[in-house]
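Below is how a single chain appears once it has passed through the pipeline. First comes the sequence as given, then the structure the pipeline wrote out for it. We keep one example in the README because the format questions we get most often are answered faster by looking than by reading.
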Amino acid sequence: MFPMLMIVLDQLHLWVSVGPNGTVYLGWYDRRLRAVNCTNDCESRTDTFAASFTVAGGVSPNKRLTSCSFSMNVLSNCNPNFGDYNGGHATADRFYYGWGDGRNGDSDGFSGGLQLILP
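Resulting structure:
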């Protein structure tokens, strides 16, 4: 028998979009900012981040899109829920990203974006 391994995912529900010039954009839920020694609901504290990739410039730094961390543990009558309807759209120099967010105590839609800074 093998010991049970616990895997904690800090990044989840990745969305990939490719712009007309080949720039690859990524948007995802991210839990890297949650407290290390948390109690109650902080384990589910989540943000959204985005990044881009070009052959010439490589991977951009991750950009936080949320203005505050939110919980995915909210009362909701909708199923599917968080992550099921995330989406993004890429242009030659921008990435638009929409996600489900629980900061107001229910599942709401939020959006943000990333602009590619060309050299």
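The chain has one domain: 11-115.

See the next section for the split statistics.
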